[in-house]
Amino acid sequence: MLTKRIIPCLDIKNGRTVKGINFVDLRDAGDPVELAKQYAKLGADELVFLDISATLERRKTMHDMVLKVAEQVNIPFTVGGGISSIEDVDDLLHCGADKVSVNSSAVKQPELINELSEKFGSQCIVVAIDAKQINGEWFVHLAGGSIPTDLKLFDWAKDVEQRGAGEILFTSMNNDGTREGFANEALAQLSELINIPVIASGGAGTIQHFIDAFKNGKADAALAASVFHFGDIDILELKRELKKQNIEVRL
């Protein structure tokens, strides 16, 4: 049985880690380099670093920050934000990233997924999907959730898989920052629909929420930010509880 992964997420704006609710009302959560170092020591399986304003501000991901974080961690490290070309990915991998996450640019140029997968291998390419449920349907949103599209979550997830993505990071905008649990129904649908790993994101508030994401949502990994940043959940304690529930994790 494949082990389930616990992934802290560092949302970066102006060089600081931030966290909001439903993608707005951001507040400071600390220094990303220090947090990354701490999580690597505390048992995180991977880290995700998202430069959340890069696309909106039409600039590239902050390479200096990526270098500094990579120096501090010995676990897989995914970087996203403002990535739109083979050159961007090449630069980030040279800075120490293990994987890259593409979102808005992939929706605008779907063939980019094919190109990146062919050049770097599917294991390196994560497609992040920010989606919002509106009148019972899940719609993809771009640029840090600020731009709605007509693209439907499940159609896009299937397309992404066929184009060579190695993993999907699905964030429910409805659940994000609410601490009321992950969007398990949508997660379960995604897991049934596609054969690549699905990372659950948006809504973690308690250890039970992680248990539910793995058992009911059938997620392969669960990502969270504020519950880790503000010390509400200890990663090792979380993993011990998951183990008690017969959910396989690396301790």
Overall description:
This protein has 251 residues and is an alpha/beta fold. The protein has one domain (5-244): Aldolase class I (TIM Barrel, Alpha-Beta Barrel). The protein is built from 10 helices and 12 strands. It has helices spanning 32-41, 63-72, 86-95, 104-108, 111-120, 153-162, 184-193, 207-215, 226-229, 235-244, and strands spanning 5-13, 16-21, 24-30, 47-51, 77-80, 99-102, 125-134, 137-142, 147-152, 167-172, 198-201, 221-224. An 8-stranded parallel barrel has the order 1-4-5-6-7-10-11-12, surrounded by 6 helices. The longest helix has 10 residues, at 32-41. The radius of gyration is 16 Å and the shape is globular.
Task: Give a nutshell description of this structure.
With 251 residues, the chain is of the alpha/beta class. The protein has one domain: Aldolase class I (TIM Barrel, Alpha-Beta Barrel). 35% of the residues lie in helices and 28% in strands.
What features would you highlight for this structure?
10 helices; 251 residues; alpha/beta; TIM Barrel; eight-stranded parallel beta barrel
One letter per element, helices H and strands E, the order comes to EEEHEHEHEHHEEEHEHEHEHH
Number of strands: 12
What are the segments in which pLDDT stays under 50 over at least 5 consecutive residues? Answer: 19-27
What value does the Rg take, in angstroms? 16 Å
Tell me about the biggest sheet? 8 strands, parallel, barrel
Structural class of the secondary structure composition?
alpha/beta
**CATH homology group:** Aldolase class I
Kindly estimate the percentage of residues that lie in beta strands according to DSSP.
25-35%
State the helix count: 10
User: What count of domains describes the coordinates?
Assistant: 1
Shape: globular
**Which CATH class?**
Alpha Beta
Mean pLDDT: 89
CATH-defined topology: TIM Barrel
Record the strand order, biggest sheet.
1-4-5-6-7-10-11-12
